[in-house]
Design a protein that fits this description.
The structure holds two protein chains of two kinds.
Chain A: H1 5-25, H2 29-50, H3 61-91
Helix pairs in contact in A: 1-2, 2-3
Chain B: H1 2-22, H2 26-46, H3 50-75, H4 91-115, H5 128-136, H6 140-160, H7 164-167
Classes of the chains: A mainly alpha, B mainly alpha.
Chain lengths: 104, 168
């Protein structure tokens, strides 16, 4: 049995659901960020898998979109972790349920 | 043999992702994500994209996870092990989240099973040359825009995390 695009899509569906669970359960901000990373990875796997559909044009569009998505998520995570560090310095906790007010 | 390795990578990716979101210790989940990202890079090689796999390894394992370990060090105080609080008020929320996520997985896998194109994937050599040409011709402007965005993000990150004394 050959490896088809459907295999990659199934794996990405599972990774997306796991990341969604981690992002929604919000026990810890860093765990939420890990969930977001898993969802981005599911999207990257989808893009790279669908880049193999169009054989005639021989385009690299899907792969380059995946590369751009990886770089953008890296930028987002760097900024988010900087915010996490500042939130810890301010509130002394990074549990999202305990951070109640953003005033002052 | 190749198929066996594909399923092996898929198993590692999904199992380590499950462990990462279910373990109570936050540092263990970050180290499980190391395994998950290695396995995902292996899967990207199976999807005929070596360059994306290598850059995935460099950016995620070499960059993001190391930054996450630093973030945990700076935000957990002296103990790396996060204390698990078993609030009973959140348990209903957790069940709801679990149901939502399982239904998301079922819906996604149903649509993928129904509508995925039945193209089988074979490895046909490296794609490095084609990606290099595409990055410097068709995608030159997004490439440069992305590099400027990354530079500005890193500068602003350094400004945000600076001590307050220097800001005054």
């Amino acid at each position: 049995m050959n490896i088809t695009i459907g295999h990659f899509l199934m794996i990405s569906a599972a990774l997306f659901a796991i990341g969604f669970y981690a992002a929604l359960r919000r026990r810890n901000i860093i765990l939420v960020l890990i969930g977001i990373e898993l969802m981005v990875n599911a999207a990257v796997i989808n893009l790279v898998a669908f880049a193999n559909v169009n054989k005639n044009g021989n385009t690299q569009d899907g792969k380059l979109m995946a590369l751009f998505a990886i770089v953008l998520s890296a930028a987002a995570i760097a900024l988010a972790l900087a915010i996490v560090v500042k939130v810890y310095q301010h509130f002394k906790t990074i549990n999202p349920d305990e951070i109640e007010e953003f005033k002052n | 043999m190749i198929n066996l390795m594909f399923y092996f990578f898929a198993l590692i990716a999904i199992c380590s992702a499950l462990y990462a979101v279910s373990t109570p210790l936050i540092i263990r989940s970050v180290f499980a994500m190391f395994a998950c990202f290695f396995a995902i890079a292996g899967l990207l090689v199976f999807a005929q994209s070596d360059f994306i796999a290598v850059s995935h390894l460099m950016i995620y394992v070499g960059g993001i996870l190391v930054v996450m370990v630093f973030g945990i060090m700076l935000s957990q105080g002296s103990s790396l092990s996060a204390v698990v609080r078993s609030n009973k008020t959140i348990s209903l929320h957790q069940y709801l989240v679990l149901i939502v996520c399982v239904s998301v997985f079922l819906v996604l896998s149903y649509f993928f099973y129904q509508y995925a194109p039945n193209t089988s994937i074979h490895y046909e050599g490296s794609d490095l040359q084609l990606i290099g040409i595409a990055l410097l011709t068709k995608y030159l402007f997004p490439f440069e825009l992305l590099s400027i965005l990354l530079l500005s993000v890193f500068i602003f990150t350094a400004i945000i995390t600076r001590k307050k004394k220097e800001l005054n």
